[in-house]
Amino acid sequence: MLSRFKLPLLCLGAMVVWSAASPASAEEWTRKTAHGGELSRSVDRDGNVYTGSTTRTGPNGGTYTSNSTCKVGVVDRCSRSYSATGPNGKTVSGQRYSAAGPFGGRSVGSFTGPNGNTVRGFRRWRR
C-alpha cells in the first residue's frame, strides 16, 4: 500500500527530472506585415529561463522594440522593456516587472512619453 505522500513525491520527482533534462531551444522568424512593414521575433529557452525579442518596423519608418525575460518556477518572474520611435523621431519607452505565484501576483512598471514625463504604476492581484 502506498502512503498518501509517496505518489505526489514520485510525481514531483518526475517533473524535476523532466525539466532538468529538457534541452535549450531557440526560434527566430521574420515576416512582412499587412501594411508594408516588417516583424521579427526571436525566442530562446535555456532550462526554465525564456528570453525573447520583437522588432517591428512600419512602412513610414517607425520602429518598436521589445525585450523580455521570464523565469518559470513556483513563482513565475518576468521583466520586459520596450521602446518605440515614430517617423517624426519622437520616442517612448517603458519597462515592466511581474511575479505570479499560486496565491496571486504583483506587477510594477514605468512608461516615459515623448515629452520626457514618466508615469509609474503598481498592481497586485489574487487568484
Secondary-structure map:
Elements lengths: L5 H16 L3 E8 L5 E9 L2 E9 L5 E9 L4 E10 L5 E11 L2 E9 L5 E9 L1
Structure description:
The protein has an 8-stranded antiparallel β-sheet with strand order 1-2-3-4-5-6-7-8, with no helix packed on it. The protein has one helix at 6-21; strands at residues 25-32, 38-46, 49-57, 63-71, 76-85, 91-101, 104-112, 118-126. The two termini are 36 Å apart. It is built from 1 helix and 8 strands; from the N terminus they run αββββββββ. It is mainly β. Helices cover 13% and strands 58% of the residues.
Percent in strands: over 45%
Distance between the termini: 36 Å
List segments where confidence is low: pLDDT < 50 over at least 5 consecutive residues. Answer: 1-21
What is the helical fraction, as a range of percent?
10-25%
Gyration radius, rounded: 20 Å
Give the biggest sheet.
8 strands, antiparallel
> How do the strands of the widest beta sheet line up side by side?
1-2-3-4-5-6-7-8
Structural class: mainly beta
Morphology: flat
Can you count the helices? 1
Order of helices and strands: HEEEEEEEE
DSSP strand tally: 8
Give average pLDDT, whole number: 84
